[in-house]
Amino acid sequence: MKHELPVLPYAQDALAQVLSERTLDFHYGKHERAYIDNLNKLIDGTEYADMPLEEIVRKSDGAVFNNAAQAWNHLFYFFALSPNASSEPFGELAEAISSQFGSFEAFKEKFEAAGVSLFGSGWVWLSADDSGKLLITQGKNAETPLTVEGLTPLLCFDVWEHAYYLDYQNRRAEYLHHMWDIVDWNVVSGRYEKR
Ligand code: MN
Q1: DSSP bridge pairs for 152
Q2: CA distances (Å), origin 83, targets 11, 90, 99, 154, 166
Q3: How far is CA 128 from CA 92, 109, 115, 148, in A?
Q4: H or E segment at 76?
Q5: Residue 27, annotated as binding a ligand
Q6: Å from CA of 102 to ligand 1 middle
Q7: Less Cβ crowding at N or C end of the chain, within 10 Å?
Q8: Where is the Manganese/iron superoxide dismutase C-terminal domain (predicted)?
Q9: What is the dihedral of CA 87, 139, 29, 43, to 10 degrees?
Q10: How far is the centre of ligand 1, averaged over its atoms, from the C-alpha of 141 (Å)?
Q11: What's the Cα-to-Cα distance from 84 to each of 70, 135, 186, 191, rounded to whole Å?
């Protein structure tokens, strides 16, 4: 099974208020494409050749894991963004955020702080456990909560420099702060309700 780069549900310049067309072109069109192309080459003729992407992420290690997890993490990131999404979570997820973090504002601050304090390349994640409890975690490099038994990933912000350097240079905190303007809470709330 050959993995493909899916078409994004928005134009490459649609998020330009936060992420420029040039960033999308490099980040999705080149970095994400390279992870998928590398993965296809690495798994050809191996036990992973016919596995769905999520299963490869859960079962592999080394170079196969790095490329599979990065391929999956990026789809999870890009497909939760939208130029005209509702600006706040709603339903069950909104209730869980308020009850656990005090407020949506307090949650955002904590999430941004986790992204800022991650040393080097990686991701900041919001996940839910089996009881619906929310967790903010950092992942180095390609690490993903998909490999953690009992966790359902809900939202991630990419904090590799390639995610923000063209638009924000070294200002990672500013990038993270602006990302809220393009999070599609329909997608994220749906992930929480389906867990
Ligand atoms: Mn990236």
Answers
A1: 128
A2: 9, 18, 28, 19, 19
A3: 12, 18, 18, 11
A4: helix 62-78
A5: yes
A6: 30
A7: N
A8: 91-189
A9: -140
A10: 10
A11: 26, 26, 11, 19
Give 93's contacts (C-beta < 8 A, 6+ positions apart): 154, 185, 188, 189, 192, 193
Reference 70, options 33, 27, 115, 35; nearest CA is 35
Query: Which tokens belong to 155?
Result: 């939202």
Strand segments, DSSP code E, in the chain are 122-128, 134-140, 152-158
Contact by Cβ (8 Å): 64, 42:
yes
Ligand 1 centroid to residue 31 C-alpha, Å: 7
**158 annotated among ligand-binding-site residues:** yes
Amino acid code (one letter) for 89: P
pTM: 0.97
Q: How far, in Å, from the CA of 178 to the mean position of ligand 1?
A: 16
pLDDT tens, position by position, 134-145: 999 999 999 999
Placement of tokens 């359902």 in the chain: 152
Which tens digits make up the pLDDT trace of 101-130? 999 999 999 999 999 999 999 999 999 999
Name the one residue in this structure whose structure tokens are 């590398």. Answer: 38
Does position 185 have pLDDT exceeding 80, yes or no? Answer: yes
The C-alpha R_g of the chain, in whole angstroms, comes to 16
